[in-house]
Design goal:
The chain has no helices and ten strands. It has strands at 21-25, 30-31, 34-38, 44-49, 58-63, 69-70, 76-77, 80-86, 91-92, 114-117. It has a five-stranded antiparallel β-sheet with strand order 2-1-5-8-9, with no helix packed on it. A three-stranded antiparallel β-sheet has the order 3-4-10, with no helix packed on it. It is elongated.
Length: 119
């Protein structure tokens, strides 16, 4: 993707019914509270948590959950998801190749940075 993500379309609020970026706790059966931000280069999304991730829990990060994201040229960004499980010593599954997951970092569940490159 060469165009920047349209930051006005990044929505994580479940009340709107138009969630373009979402983190779901498979273990708890609910969406996590937080907000989405776009990197300075416009190529990466970051989910900023309002609550801690729990060790030993399974999560799925969705891009274009129930509404689409577009770049600034008006091209639709394909939806994707990435699952991962946290542990007491680190974030398992956080070193994906491309798409959701690339660039994820963290040492403990409460320190995981949830970020993805959108392609």
């Amino acid at each position: 993707m060469s165009e920047r993500i349209d930051p006005t379309l990044v929505n994580t609020d479940p009340a709107t019914g138009r969630r373009s970026f979402a983190l779901y706790s498979n273990t708890q059966g609910r969406f996590m509270r937080g907000s989405g931000t776009v990197s300075a280069d416009g190529q990466r999304l970051r989910f900023v948590r309002d609550e801690a991730l729990q060790a030993g829990h399974s999560y799925t990060l969705y891009v274009t959950y129930n509404t689409y994201l577009y770049d600034l040229a008006g091209n639709r960004i394909n939806g994707t998801s990435r699952g991962f499980t946290t542990s007491g010593g680190g974030c398992d599954g956080t070193r994906g190749e491309g798409g959701v997951g690339r660039g994820w970092t963290g040492r403990r569940a409460d320190q995981c940075q949830i970020e993805c490159a959108v392609q």
